[in-house]
Amino acid sequence: MSPDTEPEPDTEPDSDSEPEPAPLPTMRPATEADLPAVFALLTEAAERLAEHGVEQWPTRFERDGGWRARRIEEYVADGYLYLGSDDRGYVATITLSPHADPDFAHAWPGGPEDALYIFRFAIAGRVAGHHVGEHLLAWAADRAARAGKSWLRVDVHRRNEELHRYYERMGFTRVGTVVTPPRRSGALYQRPSARLGSSSDR
């Protein structure tokens, strides 16, 4: 079963024409009332991954009382899960937690405390390829800086080379690998936290 720490960035196949970049979505902490939108975004992203043969998430996210659903609900209750929207509706969700995945906490350089950790990063298909993921990762690095953390971190599928290259293009460095069967995640990436201008702090 795929781990819950795999983001689904806004990558699209290369083309001759570069899509128009979209602005940073308006970001806010999700509430319990937003859970249907969160699950819908995650399910849309999971279905796209499955269509491309990428094994990293379940094919659907359901509010079924299972551990994934409970974890998402806990992230919302703790104020760690964010929703992004534009003038047409919700376009992204990302969780930023001060707590590392327990399976990987021991392997982060300098220990797990000095970072925010990305979980459940998903972009709506209608804005995929428009650099929304890039904007959101810069926003997340800003949140880490404002929280007094030195790093923004994520653990990803060990064998997903495309995802590795994506994070490396986004300024992340691979700092370790942890193998904890049956989990597929364990490639550890981090980038320095960095403040954005005050106008981008939403």
From TrEMBL:
Superkingdom of the source species: Bacteria
Annotated N-acetyltransferase domain residues: 25-195
Biased composition annotated in UniProt, kind: Acidic residues: 1-19
UniProt keyword terms in alphabetical order: Acyltransferase, Ribonucleoprotein, Ribosomal protein, Transferase
UniProt cross-references to InterPro entries, sorted A to Z: Acyl_CoA_acyltransferase (IPR016181), Bact_Acetyltransf (IPR050832), GNAT_dom (IPR000182)
GO cellular component: ribosome
Region (Disordered): 1-29, 183-202
PROSITE patterns: GNAT
Pfam family of the protein (one): Acetyltransf_1
One annotated GO molecular function: acyltransferase activity, transferring groups other than amino-acyl groups
Full protein name: Ribosomal protein S18 acetylase RimI-like enzyme
